Every structure is written in structure tokens, then in C-alpha cells.
Amino acid sequence: MKEEKKKSGGVPVAIIVGVLILVVVGGFLFYRSSATPSPNVAKPANASPQPQATISTQNAPPGATPPNAIGPTTASVIIEEFADFQCGSCGAAYPALRDIIKAYSGNPNFRFIYRNFPLQMHDKAYDAAVAAEAAGLQNPAKFWLMEDQLFTNQASWSVNPNYRDVFVEYGQKIGLDVDKFKADMSGMQAKTRVDRDMSRGKAFAISSTPTVIVNNKIVPYAEVTLAGMKRIIDAEMQKSTSTQQAPPQANSNSGNK
Amino acid sequence: MPFTAALVTLCGLADAVYLTVHHYTATPVPCSIIEGCETVLTSRYAEFAGVPTAAFGALAYFVAFSLAILAAYGNRTMWKLFGVQVVVMAAVTCWLIYLQAFVIGAFCQFCLISALITFILLLLFVISKVTRAQI
């Protein structure tokens, strides 16, 4: 009897240990099969860019006019980014794109356009886009300063219920006329610009952010790195130089900068 | 009842292990217009003290499984401890749902499956108490 009880007492322990072993082994095997090389690992310089989906800009609404843009409209390489200030992946891609703008700033063949595409599931994204546009209404350069504030501090304001006050603090920090900024955040002009960008994104059937388009070709998210973007931009610049083609037009808007 | 609960905890354990492995291996993906899973899994609440939240879940499910199995083999005290644990798990689950709904502003289906499993465990425990099911 005693032996029987002892025997049955060992069964649950054996089951528990068995499940523990299964979990550890199964988890490890799953980890090994799931682990893939990081997309941030630099590829060889001669690696060809990933295949890209092409989008048609014909009949698409122009978006906010003039757009938030850096570089001349005559540039041969036009980059258009559709982004959401509350999207973690947009925040993660921001440093690479900021460095790309810095690297090609002043190059007559380079133009970068930022488009607002706040996703509905991000409750503060639309207001953040309006805040960036409100900053840009005072001075186009202030848009980029506000963009920097929003992406750099994304983890902070996106979980703050008083995020509008935080935007005002950012406005003060980048030297905005705070009263005008507050008025513009509630006004229609900034909202209309955001809505126009969104209409353009919807016409392109944008389904995720960030969506980066280089000369009408969508760049896979894994390629939105400093090395990946440089490779694609340089290839496009080389292509335009060798073929002497007319520059593609992302839209007919004139740049802010 | 404890045996049924043990089987249910295995589902929760599998879900939590999947999320834990995903936490360490997932390649970055963009924010999708239709899904909020990546938003949740890349949020600041995906980790506590450097440990994935899902790993805490996996540990909780494993402990719940152990307690349920011991109870299934006649240890009534373990069933009571199981009850205490699922109440705590349900409370944490409510907080995590609140975070998804009102703080992060996005839902992750795998987190919601885990929440459903926790509530099923709580329900099984409550039913066992109400019906005084033999363990």
C-alpha cells in the first residue's frame, strides 16, 4: 500500500519533468529554426538591391502641397516616405533615414519627401502628424525639427495621456511661437495637409509604415537601413546618369527646402 | 477538473513559449494597417527588467500546470494553490489587456489567446468550487 502511494506520487513529478524537458527542447529547436540573420548586417557593397514592388503614381492625389521635402524637384532620385510618428518600426527606421538625408543633403540628384500616414490603431499618431505639420506652418525647417523630436522621444509621448502638452514642450524646445503652434494644432490647415498625405498613401494602397518609395519602387522594410538605402540610391543615381533619362516625378509639388 | 485544467495550461504554455522565442528571434517588421501584434510586442511593456513579459507567462503556465497535475493525482492543497495562482494570473491579464487597449492602443492576437486561456483556467477553478467537483 505504502509502495503504491509512493509510486503514484512519482507519476505527477515524472509528467512535470517530462513537460519541462519538452518545453526546453521544443523552445530551443523553435528558436534555432526561427533565428535568421539580422537585416542590419551590412551586405557587401556589390550586392544587388532586393527586388522591389513598383507603384503607379498616375492619378494619385498629390498629397500635401508643397510637401515636406528636402532637395530639388528636378532630382533624379526621389524618395517618398509614408510614416506614422507612433509606429515603433518608423521610429526604428528614423535614424537610418535621417543619416541618409544628411549624407545626400546638397546633392542635386537627391530629394526626400516625408508623407504623413498615421495608422488608425495608433491613437496619438494623427495628432502627432498634425503637430509636425503645425510646426512646419511656421517654418518648413521646423517640421523636420519636430519630426526629430517626435521620433526621438516616441517611447515617452506615445504612452503619455497628456501628449498634447508634451508636443507644446517640444514646440518650445525647437523655438516655435507657442501660441500660434497651439492654434495651428487645433486649426484646419495642418489637419488638411495630413489628410492630403493620407489620401495619397491610400491611393498607393499603403498597408504598413514605414513605406519608403524610391523612384516609384517600394523598398522592402529590411532594406530601410543606412547601408540598404545607400545601395539603392546609388544604384538609381548610376542608372539615371548612364541612361540620361528624364527625372521621374513623384508629384508636381515644389519643395519646402 | 484539475486534469482538464492541466491540459488547458499546456495550450497557454505553448502560446507563451512561442511569444518568448518570437521576442528573441523576430526580425523587425513594419507597422501593419490591420494588425497590432508587432506594436504590442515591440512596446516598452514587452519586457520587464530585461525579461520578456511572455517568459513570465511561460513560467506562470508551467507552475499552474505542475499544480494542476499534482492536484489531479489527489493533492487538494495544490488545487487551492492553483486557484490562488489563476486569480493572480487573471488580475495580471486584466492589466495587460488594459495596457493594450488604452496605453499601447493595439492588440496582439497571441496575447489575447493567452488571456482567454487564463480566464478559462479561472472559470474551471470556479466551477470546481461551485460544483465541489471531486479532485
Q: What is the annotated CATH architecture of the largest domain in chain A?
A: 3-Layer(aba) Sandwich
Task: Count up the domains of chain B.
Answer: 1
Relative helix content of chain B: over 70%
Total helical segments of chain B: 5
CA radius of gyration of chain A: 24 Å
Can you tell me the CATH class of chain B? Mainly Alpha
SSE order of chain B in H/E notation?
HEHEEHHH
Low-confidence stretches of chain B: none
Task: Outline the fold blueprint.
The complex is a heterodimer of chains A (257) and B (135).
Chain A lengths: L1 H33 L18 E2 L13 E3 L6 E7 L4 H17 L5 E7 L8 H14 L1 H13 L1 H4 L5 H11 L4 H9 L1 H16 L4 E2 L1 E4 L2 E3 L6 H18 L14
Helix pairs in contact in A: 3-4, 3-7, 3-8
Chain B lengths: L1 H24 L5 E2 L4 H5 L5 E2 L2 E2 H20 L3 H29 L4 H22 L5
Antiparallel strand pairs in B: 2-3
Helix pairs in contact in B: 1-3, 1-5, 3-4, 4-5
What does this structure look like?
- The complex is a heterodimer of chains A (257) and B (135).
- Chain A has 257 residues and is α+β, with helices and mostly antiparallel strands.
- Chain A folds into 2 domains: 1-35; 53-243, Glutaredoxin (3-Layer(aba) Sandwich).
- In chain A, 53% of the residues lie in helices and 11% in strands.
- Chain A has 9 helices and 7 strands, in the order αβββαβααααααβββα.
- Chain A has a 6-stranded mixed beta sheet with strand order 1-7-6-3-4-2, sandwiched between helices.
- In chain A, helix 2 links the parallel strand 3 (77-83) and strand 4.
- The N and C termini of chain A lie far apart (89 Å).
- Mean pLDDT of chain A is 84; it is low at 1-7, 37-49 and 251-257.
- Chain B has helices at 2-25, 37-41, 53-72, 76-104, 109-130; strands at residues 31-32, 47-48, 51-52.
- Chain B has one domain (2-130): VKOR domain (de novo design (two linked rop proteins)).
- Chain B is mainly alpha-helical and 135 residues long.
- In chain B, helix 3 (53-72) packs antiparallel against helix 4 and helix 4 runs antiparallel to helix 5.
- In chain B, 74% of the residues lie in helices and 4% in strands.
- The relative contact order of chain B is 0.20.
